Amino acid sequence: MLKVGIVGLRRGYSYFQVFSHLPDTKISAVCDPDEGLLRHYADQLRDVKTYGNFEEFIQDDFDIAVICSPLPFHYEQSVVALEAGKNVLCEVTAATSIEECESLIRTVEKTKRKYMLAENYNYMPFVETWRSIIRAGEIGKIIYAEGEYVHDCRSLMRDAEGNLTWRASLTPIMYCTHNLGPLLYLMEDACVSAIGLSTGVNVAPELGAEDMNVAIFETEKGAVIKFLAGFSIAKEPMHLFFSIYGTKGFLETDRYNYSTHTYLYTECIPNLQGFISLTTPLTHPNAPREALLGGHGTTEYFLARDFLRSIIDDTKPPIDVYEAVKYTIPGICAAISLREGGKKIEIPKLW
User: Fold this and answer.
1) Which of 99, 124, 128, 141 shows the greatest Cβ crowding within 10 Å of its Cβ?
2) Residue range 2-119+300-319, CATH number
3) Extents of the domains making up the chain
4) Within a 10 A sphere around the Cβ of 312, how many other Cβ atoms?
5) Class of the CATH-defined domain 121-288+327-346
6) What separation in angstroms does the CA of 313 have from each of 202, 309, 327?
């Protein structure tokens, strides 16, 4: 039985639910500085040790640390957990600088612990449908892709006391893994250069938050990826968007039903007039009922299950530290580019 410790109960409650129902695991400790939140979940935490201090929490006796704290803490807490002998499942993104990416890789290699990035969008059922289509050669060689994540998060940029949160100072383009993760996974590719541009601060000057960023990435295989991110923007509802163009056709999601509606055009079907509309489920077929407890369909359940298997079977996690950096570092380099007026930045190959 592997014991699990979770830090950050807001996002982490999803993984509390998941690991509570996975075989071979037991939640033994949780950590959150918000005493009110610990009281809120008191009934569920009756047989679990609770901590308000991360340094004390990480010294407890458990096998898996699930890092669900705010983004600025991910790298540091992952490194501390790895050095304390824990296997780490970390929320996105993995790090906030090139130096942190390098250090994270070195720490995983040194400690020989398992590390996995909890990029749940790789586990959306439509991604596997696209993977089958791409591997069958139905859209040919991939030459271009797009990703968009536009979500008005201004309400989350101040805390209950009115103080600015980390989201207000986040360069949007750095929060790229929800799009780059699935795209690079599908393309079996990696980014080698980045150009970033910003619209500036127009919508919410009182927050100091940038409206939108756009990045252009070149890949190892010669493809181009465009990524748009905006979190301080007047738009409802939020949307994610994915598009992949090949030499024989394209795949594209519906902006407002990205996880369930796909459009396919392929020259492999003679005389096809227009695209084919495909409907994909939000949840995995034949998933157990408890898989719905994590949220985002059934993605968290299968993500956590795969990480658990990698520990038990001593195999490579599906999104290991090298993949984590591959998904994270392009956004870091795009942010450097936009601060330098859109200068092309070479992305160091750390994987």
Assistant:
1) 124
2) 3.40.50.720
3) 2-119+300-319, 121-288+327-346
4) 11
5) alpha beta
6) 51, 6, 25
